[in-house]
Amino acid sequence: MKPTDIATPDYFHKVVDCQWACPAHTPVPEYIRLIAAGRYSDAYMINWQSNVFPGILGRTCDRPCEPACRRGRVEEGEAICRLKRVAADKKDDIRHRLPKRALRKNGKRIAFVGAGPASLTAARDLAPLGYQCTIYDGDAQAGGMIRSQIPKFRLPETVIDEEVGYILDMGIEFQGGTRVDSLAALLGEGYDAVMVGSGAPRGRDLDIPGRKEAAKNIHIGIDWLSSVSFGHVDKIGKRVIVLGGGNTAMDCCRSSRRLGGDDVKVIVRSGFEEMKASPWEKEDAMHEGIPIINYHVPKSFTHEDGRLTGVMFEKVAATQDEQGRRQLVPTGEPEIHFACDDVLIAVGQENAFPWIERDSGVKF
Ligand code: SF4
C-alpha cells in the first residue's frame, strides 16, 4: 500500500467535498461556521483570501461546491454560494485587514492585459510583494466581463466597485480606456513579464442563410449584454428569440424581458438536461415566464424588406450511435417557423488574440 502523501494540501482538501469541488478550494465549512457565530468579517476574509471576490461570487458563482455538499445525501445541500453573499453584505469595514501597499518595490514590472478577474487576482497577489503592476483594459473601468456582461439586476455595480477597488488600491496602476493592440509594442516597453488575462471576448456567430440580410436585428449575445450594461442599448423588440442554452443565454433572455420583450423565448438545439446553463439560472428564466424550447436547430433567418421576421428551425431527437454516443438526428418533420423582431445569439464564446503577433513566440 502506498503511504498517504500529506505533503500536498490536496490531501486535506479532498477530505472536504465542497472545498475540493470549488475551483478556488475555498474552505467552505470554516467560513460557514464563522457565519453561524456571527463573525461575518472573518468569514469574508477567509473567502477573500481564496476566491478574491466574495460579494461578486456570492451572487454569480456557478457553485460547483453545492452539488458536492454531503448534506445533500440526507436532505438539501447547504446554500454555500448565497452564504458567501451573507458574509459580504453583513461584514464591517475590512479595509484595514487587506494587504498593505509594498513600501519598497522590487524593481520588477509586470503588465496585465485585460482588467478582469484573472489579471486582478494575479496583481492582488503580486503587488504587495513589491512588483510594479500595470493593468491595461479597453474599457474605462476595471472588472472586465464581471462589469460588462453580468446584468445589473444580478450584480449591482456598487459590489463590483467595492471589490475591484480593494485590489486597485494596493498601488496597482490601472490604464483604463487603453486597448492593447500589439504584444510586441508592449514588450518593447521593457516589462519583465506580461500576463494575458483577456478572457474569451468573442461571441460565436451563426452563419446561416439570412444572417446578413437581417443583420440589423440579429445581435451577438455578449456584445449586446455589454451594450446594455454601458447604457448604449435600452430597448429591444417585443418578440425576442434567444439562441443558446448557457448562462449567457439566460442573462440575454432575462435582460430582454426588462427592456421591453413581451414574448421572449429561449430555443436550444440540445435537451433541457444537457443545457450548459446552471439549473437555478434556467429556473429564474422560467419563473419570469420565459419558455425554453429544446431540440430545435436554427436553419435560417427569415426577413422581409431587410427586416428580420423570424427563424426557421429543424426539429431533432436525441439517439445513440453504435458506440453508445449521444447524437441529435433530424426527426424528418417539416421545418418550423418562429416569428420574432430580434434574435440574440448566445451559442458560445472563443478566445481572440488579434493583438498577439504571429511571430511573437506565443503558441496557441
Ligand atoms: S460558491 Fe463558488 S467560490 Fe464559493 S465555494 Fe462554491 S464554488 Fe467556491
Question: Short description, anyone?
Answer:
The protein is of the alpha/beta class. The chain has helices at residues 10-15, 17-21, 28-36, 40-51, 54-60, 65-68, 80-90, 117-126, 145-148, 157-168, 183-187, 221-229, 247-258, 279-287, and strands at 109-113, 132-136, 173-175, 193-196, 202-203, 218-220, 239-243, 263-267, 292-293, 296-304, 307-320, 326-330, 336-339, 342-345, 349-350. Helix 8 (117-126) links the parallel strand 1 and strand 2 (132-136).
Can you characterise this structure?
- With 364 residues, the protein is α/β, with parallel strands linked by helices.
- It folds into 3 domains: 10-96, Fumarate Reductase Iron-sulfur Protein, Chain B, domain 2 (Orthogonal Bundle); 98-196, FAD/NAD(P)-binding domain, CATH 3.50.50.60; 205-347, FAD/NAD(P)-binding domain.
- Helix content is 32%, strand content 20%.
- The protein has helices at 10-15, 17-21, 28-36, 40-51, 54-60, 65-68, 80-90, 117-126, 145-148, 157-168, 183-187, 221-229, 247-258, 279-287, and strands spanning 109-113, 132-136, 173-175, 193-196, 202-203, 218-220, 239-243, 263-267, 292-293, 296-304, 307-320, 326-330, 336-339, 342-345, 349-350.
- The strands form 4 sheets. A 5-stranded parallel beta sheet has the order 6-14-7-8-9.
- Helix 8 links the parallel strand 1 (109-113) and strand 2 (132-136).
- Helix 3 (28-36) runs antiparallel to helix 4, helix 3 packs across helix 7 and helix 13 (247-258) runs parallel beside helix 14 (279-287).
- The radius of gyration is 23 Å and the shape is globular.
- The two termini are 41 Å apart.
- Residues 22, 24, 26, 28, 51, 57, 61, 63-65, 80-81, 84 line the site of iron/sulfur cluster.
- Iron/sulfur cluster (SF4) binds at residues 22, 24, 26, 28, 51, 57, 61, 63-65, 80-81, 84.
